[in-house]
Amino acid sequence: MKANKFLSYLVVFTAAIMISSCVQDDDYEIPSVVVTNVELVPNTTIGLVKSMYTGSLVEFSEASNGGNLIMEGYVISNDEAGNFYKTLILQDAPENPTAGIKIDIDAVSLFSFYKPGRKVYVKLSGLGMTESNGVLQIGTISGTGVERISATNYQDYIVRSEEIATIVPKIITPAQYSDVLINTLIQLEDMQLSGAEVGLPYANAYDTYNVNRSLKNCVDDSYTILRNSGYSSFSKELFPVGKGSISGIFSKYNSDYQLFIRDTEDISFDGDRCDPLFEEYFETNFTTWTAFSVTGSQVWSPNSYGNPGYCAAMSGYSSGSTSENEDWLITPAIDLSAVSSAVLTFQTAKNYTGNVLEVYMCTDYLGGDPNDSGSWVPLSVTLSTGSWSWTDSGNIDVSAAAGENLFVAFKYTCTGSSSATYEVDNVKVFVP
């Protein structure tokens, strides 16, 4: 008997020595943890679970529900970039979902275990559901509400399956917003950051609090709240200033719908903005502009032959004769303080023979005679060559004025023997 005990100790001791001998100079790898996924049979849906809420805490118990309710869903949240915190969001299908739900979990880096697209089963017995600021959420029962599921046992409630699906965002318009879409992945087209926020980062670059950004829809001019965390990895990055599509998890705060992106790859704003930083169609008398006549009795004035409607026109021809003129038409100050780049476009129409229209820019015009005020820089533009043909100027880079006020000037000159007629319309400055 004693001999058997001695042999057992010897085996254990020898094995310990062999194991320790494999570790050299602390150069070893932590063994990988193999997680076994489980396939369960769901007996309810996210939609049916949500319908159980009637205004007060829902307690899921086997006694009240006739057994353990099991619902299935697909993970659509991703906390890797830090815009989601201790939250797992599921929807009921990879594509065209009908319902979504939020689950509060007292753990971080959930993406490492619940990869976006992972199908999971939620065993609801022992959990509860209530509403917070207009959004239903599931967690551990605490009094008349719920709190986050403990980090030690949340995997007992939320069980991974083998399936990882491709999640396809549902393309909608702001006019289709409804509570049914809460906690589902949507996609919006023709969106851009509001003009007042161009040049700002995703969140607060100097603090950690959350920031709302305002997104404008270029079709119906509606605005959508985009909520970004100051703890996110992209909080200090400048928000893209173009126009395009955005995907995100649809949510709500009290009566306001809002959107959460998973990371910056959810945004593709690579098109031209739909609302310029400045625009002038000359449909009213351009009283905010400076029309300064240096020489001659003719001046820039409104004309009803624009493209379409009205335009600004100038000619040195009057009463059967031509006289020498120098006339400037100058925009009001265009605020480019919040942008790093800008583009100017306009259209011209011309007829008759005479000097070519000149176009300038500066940042320091103080009013009065532009020959005495402003460091005017000539711009290379495309102009109409005649026959009243409306011609696009092309995209003219005026980024040299970024961070300052931009002034654009159209300088018309003619002699006593020849004078062209120029018309200018549809002047725009926008962020490329």
What's the short story on this structure?
This protein is mostly beta strands and 432 residues long. Helix content is 8%, strand content 38%.
Structure annotation, total helices: 4
CATH class placement of the largest domain? Mainly Beta
CATH fold description of the largest domain: Jelly Rolls
Q: What is the name of the CATH architecture of the largest domain? A: Sandwich
Shape: elongated
Number of domains: 3
Number of E-type strands: 31
Q: Main sheet?
A: 9 strands, mixed
Note the quaternary state here. Answer: single chain
Strand content: 35-45%
- The end-to-end distance, rounded to whole angstroms, is 88 Å
Mean pLDDT: 90
SSE layout and pairings?
Blueprint (H helix, E strand, L loop, with lengths): L1 H20 L24 H6 L6 E2 L2 H4 L4 E6 L11 E5 L8 E5 L13 E6 L3 E6 L2 E8 L2 E3 L6 H4 E7 L5 E3 L12 E9 L17 E7 L5 E6 L14 E11 L2 E5 L6 E5 L6 E3 L9 E6 L5 E3 L7 E5 L1 E2 L2 E2 L2 E6 L3 E2 L7 E9 L6 E5 L14 E2 L12 E2 L3 E2 L7 E10 L6 E10 L2
Parallel strand pairs: 4-7, 10-11, 13-15
Antiparallel strand pairs: 1-6, 2-3, 2-5, 3-4, 5-9, 6-7, 7-8, 11-12, 11-14, 12-13, 14-15, 14-16, 17-31, 18-23, 19-20, 20-31, 21-22, 23-30, 24-30, 25-28, 25-29, 25-31, 26-27, 26-30
Molecular structure report:
The protein has 4 helices and 31 strands. With 432 residues, the chain is mainly β. The chain has 3 domains: 46-164, OB fold (Dihydrolipoamide Acetyltransferase, E2P), CATH 2.40.50; 170-271, OB fold (Dihydrolipoamide Acetyltransferase, E2P) (Beta Barrel), CATH 2.40.50; 278-430, Jelly Rolls, CATH 2.60.120. The strands form 5 sheets. Strands 1, 2, 3, 4, 5, 6, 7, 8 and 9 form a 9-stranded mixed β-sheet that branches. The radius of gyration is 33 Å and the shape is elongated. The protein starts with a helix and ends with a strand. The relative contact order is 0.10.
